[in-house]
Amino acid sequence: MASSSSAAAPGARRNWRALFLAALAETSNVSAAAQAAGISLSCVYRTKRDDPDFAADWLAALCEGYDRLELELLGRLRGGEPRQPADGAERRHDNATGLRLLLAHRDSRTRYMAQQDAVSAEAIRASIEDKLARLREWVLTREAAEAGGGQETDGDG
Predict the structure, then answer these.
(1) What's the pLDDT score for residue 3?
(2) Structural domain boundaries of the chain?
(3) Quick one: residue 80, left, alpha or beta (phi over 0 = left, psi -120 to 50 = alpha)?
């Protein structure tokens, strides 16, 4: 089983993938997520390359992280930032860097959302046929009403 060697380094946690993806969704930072999962960056990237399901989960987690960043930035920009947090710790948020990160990853998020919204050709065809059938019924009803003297188009008259 050659794939098991690429799955995790010796001594890695069994659930490192779940830990990594959760940390990635929280931080949008691959290095920090790998460290939180106790796995090397090379192993993480190798697994991403070799496992399409993991790669898809990675993209979903990263997009979730950028959604969180966007909401945090909007909150800070709309409501302002306190000079000193309640816990006394000094934090400085770099809103400009956050905005640059969002812009840099806009294309990957757009691709991800397009994949999520993807509908099969059959479903699209069925939807179009349903709309055409309803339109056809409406036109026939309207034509019948007009042929009958135009008195009863919607039952109002």
Answers:
(1) 39
(2) 2-81+94-118, 121-157
(3) left
